[in-house]
């Protein structure tokens, strides 16, 4: 790459143009900054471009080198597909009365020699959510086969009608293709009140949740009925409690324990995973004893003072997350954090110190570097962060962590048993 890509803008009608008088700048925290040429990759397949109403892009004048706004239209950002982590957000100035942006990630994007580019890296080799890999005919025949096979199973009906056919959930589509990770939504309630919750948004908020929360409490029998055949027949099989369309699975830990015990009476194949907010270490211990193989704890930060104003927990503490991870590791489980990456916050000095503590205290196995799907101004405003200070850059942060913890795995998805044993296992077929 000979120079930074040109800034993109939209005409407000969904048409996107490049402005060759401006090089694009990246956003980190509250600041617009220059990027490095090796921060950029072509926009990956499955990525989308968004126009950002009420926002003017910030760029660097090609001739003067001065920072200035693009007045030709609205700012543009990219939603980068799973398996990729963004280094910078889109840099823009928000005009008064600009609407809050919906719950997507807004990665820095630009135009270079006839192509869209983004500041990101492919962090995960696993191809389970490559959009080119989904076969609509196979999904259709899988829907018919499983809905017919389990006519009274509310979970399979939910996965078919709501998750697969309404939300086009990649995990549900993989289940109906009979492969890889199979979702088990289990809890209609949650003990946290995340500002950017994707399954519940208060009436008075201007944005909406991207999914509706499950409305029933599945039974262990419903879970076991469709997950045992999946573990028995799917390649690299995983069954995962805790999905985007529900609350907190640990609130249903007794049902999950009963299901795990019953699953393992029928099969020893594959991995049983839970995606959770980690709020109940005692429940995690009981699930590890029952046969849980891996746990992924979601967090926006390794710092209590950044976590608490975002998650707004009911009856649990940030420390409970660490205890849940520590206990699962002590039982030999695979432990990950679902780390919501926010440039300017995640790569700050204070966050790095806290992350080092989390990794060492919990004996963590993996970081899933996830893009934070939230309006940056709205998020920082809600958690009361007015100044984000010095930072390393997300790329440099990843480099530091790799250097200091060479055993720690980087990725984006929960690994199957085969990769837990040998993380470099080829997963391409
Ligand atoms: S833990 Fe999950 S379900 Fe609960 S409020 Fe947060 S995002 Fe929503």
Compose a concise summary of this entry.
By secondary structure, the chain is an alpha/beta fold. The chain contains 12 helices and 21 strands. The protein has 2 domains: 6-122, no CATH class; 140-421, TIM Barrel (Alpha-Beta Barrel).
Please give the alpha-carbon distance between the first and last residues. Answer: 32 Å
Named CATH topology of the largest domain: TIM Barrel
Task: Give the integer mean of the pLDDT values.
Answer: 96
Low-confidence stretches: none
- What is the quaternary state of this protein? single chain
Write the CATH homologous superfamily of the largest domain. Answer: Aldolase class I
Listed once per kind, the bound small molecules are: iron/sulfur cluster
* CATH architectural arrangement of the largest domain: Alpha-Beta Barrel
Radius of gyration using CA atoms only: 22 Å
Strand content: 15-25%
Number of domains: 2
* Strand-pairing-aware structural class: alpha/beta
Shape: globular
State the helix count.
12
Q: What summary fits the major beta sheet?
A: 7 strands, antiparallel
The total beta strand count reads: 21
CATH first level of the largest domain: which class? Answer: Alpha Beta
| Helix content range | 25-40%
How would you describe this protein?
By secondary structure, the chain is α/β, with parallel strands linked by helices. It has 2 domains: 117 residues, no CATH class; 282 residues, TIM Barrel (Alpha-Beta Barrel). It is 30% helix and 24% strand. The chain has 12 helices and 21 strands. Strand 3 and strand 4 form a beta hairpin. Helix 2 crosses helix 3 and helix 5 packs parallel to helix 6. The longest helix has 14 residues. It is globular. The site of iron/sulfur cluster has 11 residues, from loops.
């Amino acid at each position: 790459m000979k120079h930074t890509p040109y800034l993109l803008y939209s005409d407000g009608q969904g048409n996107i143009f490049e402005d060759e008088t401006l090089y694009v700048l990246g956003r980190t925290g509250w600041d617009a900054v220059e990027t490095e040429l090796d921060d950029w990759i072509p926009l990956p397949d499955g990525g989308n471009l968004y126009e950002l109403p009420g926002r003017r892009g910030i760029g660097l004048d090609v001739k003067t080198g001065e920072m200035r706004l693009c007045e030709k239209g609205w700012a543009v950002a990219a939603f980068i597909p799973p398996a990729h982590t963004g280094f910078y957000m889109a840099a823009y100035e928000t005009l008064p009365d600009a609407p809050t942006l919906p719950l997507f990630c807004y990665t820095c994007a630009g135009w270079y020699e006839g192509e869209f580019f983004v500041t990101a890296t492919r962090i995960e080799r696993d191809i389970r959510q490559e959009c080119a890999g989904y076969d609509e005919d196979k999904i259709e025949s899988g829907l018919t086969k499983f809905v017919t096979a389990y006519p009274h199973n509310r979970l399979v009906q939910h996965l078919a009608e709501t998750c697969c056919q309404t939300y086009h959930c990649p995990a549900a589509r993989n289940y109906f293709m009979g492969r890889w990770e199979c979702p088990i939504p289990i809890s209609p309630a949650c003990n946290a009140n995340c500002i950017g919750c994707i399954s519940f948004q208060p009436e008075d908020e201007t944005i909406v949740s991207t999914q509706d929360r499950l409305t029933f409490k599945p039974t262990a029998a419903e879970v076991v009925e469709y997950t045992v055949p999946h573990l028995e027949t799917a390649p690299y099989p995983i069954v995962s409690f805790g999905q985007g369309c529900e609350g907190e699975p640990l609130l249903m830990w007794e049902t999950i324990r009963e299901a795990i015990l019953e699953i393992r009476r029928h099969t020893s194949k594959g991995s049983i995973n839970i995606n959770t907010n980690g709020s109940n270490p005692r429940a995690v211990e009981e699930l590890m004893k029952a046969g849980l193989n891996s746990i992924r704890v979601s967090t926006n930060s390794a710092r209590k003072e950044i976590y608490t104003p975002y998650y707004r927990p009911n009856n649990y503490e940030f420390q409970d997350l660490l205890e849940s991870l520590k206990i699962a590791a002590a039982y030999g489980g695979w432990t990950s954090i679902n780390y919501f990456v926010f440039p300017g916050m995640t790569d700050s000095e204070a966050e790095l110190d806290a992350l080092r503590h989390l990794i060492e205290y919990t004996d963590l196995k993996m970081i899933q570097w996830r893009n934070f799907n939230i309006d940056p101004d709205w998020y920082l405003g809600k958690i009361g962060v007015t100044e984000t200070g010095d930072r390393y850059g997300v790329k440099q942060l990843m480099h530091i962590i790799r250097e200091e913890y060479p055993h720690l795995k980087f990725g984006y998805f929960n690994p199957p048993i085969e990769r837990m044993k040998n993380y470099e296992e080829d997963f391409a077929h």
